[in-house]
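A quick word before the example. In earlier lectures we treated sequence and structure as two separate objects. From today on, think of them as two lines of the same record. Here is Heme-binding protein written that way.
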Amino acid sequence: MITLQDARRVIAAAEEKAGQVGQPMNIAIVDAGGNLVAHVRMDGAWVGSIDISINKAFTSRAFDISTKQLGENAQPGGQFYGIHASNNGRIMIFAGGIPLTKEGKVVGAIGVSGGSGEQDQQVAQAGADAF
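And the structure line, produced from the sequence above:
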């Protein structure tokens, strides 16, 4: 289970990393059911990335895989090619979504959007590491 306190701790770590990379981000945390627990839009973060961050978190939890890994396997000829069209278009196949695990079990996910794929991944990883 991910509590609001857990989500706030993860978001705080992600916000700190976003500050270090100099890019305001949208950061979303979902629970084991893929339901939003908490979201923050840092000052100056793109409004268009709100939905993307939430959907990156949902995608990571829905498939228990990082969106970066899913994206690598969703290219033409890949085993998950076309997956982005499933789930009414909620599936994100670019970096920034990471499952959150406790005692080896996925209990939620973080989704980050607002920078380059590399920046989103770094910020999401910092949040996941704080979990």
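Notice the following. The mean pLDDT is 97. We will return to this example when we discuss secondary structure assignment.
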